[in-house]
Amino acid sequence: MSSARSDKSMYDGLSKKDRQALAREIARIQREEERKRKRRTRIAVRTTLIVAGVAVLAVAGFAVYNGIRSTFVGPLNMLSDGILFEGDGSTTTAVTTAALQPDAQPVASDLDTSTVLRITEYVDYASPDVATFETANASALQSYVSAGYASIELHPVALDGDASGYSTRAANAVACVANSTPDATLAVHNALVAAQPTLPDGGLSNDDLVALVQKAGATDAAIASCITGNEFDDWVAGATARAQQNVPNSDVATLTATPLVIIDGTAYSGALDDTDALNALITEVFSAATGTTDPGAAGDSTGTDGTGTDDTGTGTPTEAPGRTPAAG
Questions:
Q1: Which pLDDT belongs to residue 308?
Q2: Handedness of CA 235, 237, 238, 242 (dihedral sign)
């Protein structure tokens, strides 16, 4: 067709009027083909843009989905909704685990009571009762852990249910530390407990929480952004709700108040500042687990009252109550 259009012989034998008419028809056909070409080009460009736009939206949507999904992923090293610490005779270290995935159920720690004393604590860092118990007993219990006679598992919760409240933000701070620097989590726990009696209205701000955990030794930059971004607040809410529905490895069904302190599966129900009552429970559960009535038998009883503590009433152990220390 193009060669025919360019061949001037097609005009031979035509009158001037016919030649002009043919030229106009050819020009019309060329204009129509050009319009069709441009239209095809516009359609192709629009189609390309639409496909590209859909792809961009898909990528953006996937990123948003992953961002939302990530807020429901739990912190590393808290697969049980708590972080477990064990000792080797001198050092306390955290047991590392995977993170709890969205919609998954926590995996309760295997707390074999025949080896070492198993201590589990559910704590709300806004609670004065938690501070009372910890002030009276934490030094002794944590000494058992570092000596290798006990383990301790901390479960931070927020019983007030306020997503922006101090209980949630403090528990989130613990989760942030556990996620990045697990071995520093016990020190951060102790610092949060120490801060409780002098909390301002509304509790510590997120910036103050960052300063607190850094002073306690958790200096990873990722922890600061995790705290200020409330990265694990959804997990805190979920973990709290799960504990309010079920408390594993315990003779109590659900969490109703903090502190909930469980010794070898038995919840402590004595006065929060009564170290003698706590030592009596330790003796009782030891006897039930081993059939031995003297929990101090495995340790040096010199200067003790048979509870594994010294005679000063401070709860500092000379030997842990009746267990063989864990292998280092």
A1: 37
A2: positive
Q: pLDDT confidence of 3, banded at 50, 70, 90?
A: very low
Per-domain residue ranges of the chain:
2-6+15-70, 83-290
Higher pLDDT, 288 or 232: 232
Among residues 71, 35, 42, the alpha carbon closest in space to that of 230 is found at: 71
CATH topology for 83-290?
Answer: Glutaredoxin (3.40.30)
How far is the C-alpha of 132 from the C-alpha of 143, rounded, in Å? Answer: 18
Structure-block tokens of residue 283: 């003796």
How far apart CA 80 and CA 100 sit, in angstroms, is 8
Element (H, E) at 153: strand 150-156
Establish how many alpha carbons lie within 13 A of residue 96's alpha carbon, considering only the half-sphere containing its beta carbon: 6
pTM: 0.73
State the average pLDDT over residues 48-69.
61
- Asked whether the beta carbons of 210 and 105 are under 8 A apart, the reply is no
Separation CA 164–CA 192 (nearest Å): 17
Rounded to a whole number, what is the largest CA-CA distance in the chain? 134
Cis peptide before 259 (omega within 30 of 0): yes
Mapped onto helix, strand or coil, the DSSP state of residue 242 is helix
pLDDT tens, 60-95? 554 444 444 445 899 999 999 999 999 999 999 999
d(CA 37, CA 45): 12
Using alpha carbons only, give the angle 303, 306, 309 rounded to the nearest 5 degrees.
60
Compute the mean pLDDT over every residue in the chain, rounded to the nearest whole number: 84
Backbone CA torsion sign across 238, 242, 243, 247 = negative
Token duo for residue 57 = 């939206």
CB atoms within 10 A of CB 4: 9
Which residues, listed in sequence order, are joined to residue 93 by a DSSP beta bridge? 86
The Cβ-side half-sphere exposure at 274, using a 13 Å CA radius, reads 11
For 235-260, letters b (16+ CB in 10 Å) and e give bbbbbbebbeeebbbbeeeebeebbb
In this structure, of 15-19, 118-122, 204-208, 324-328, the range with the lowest mean pLDDT score is: 324-328
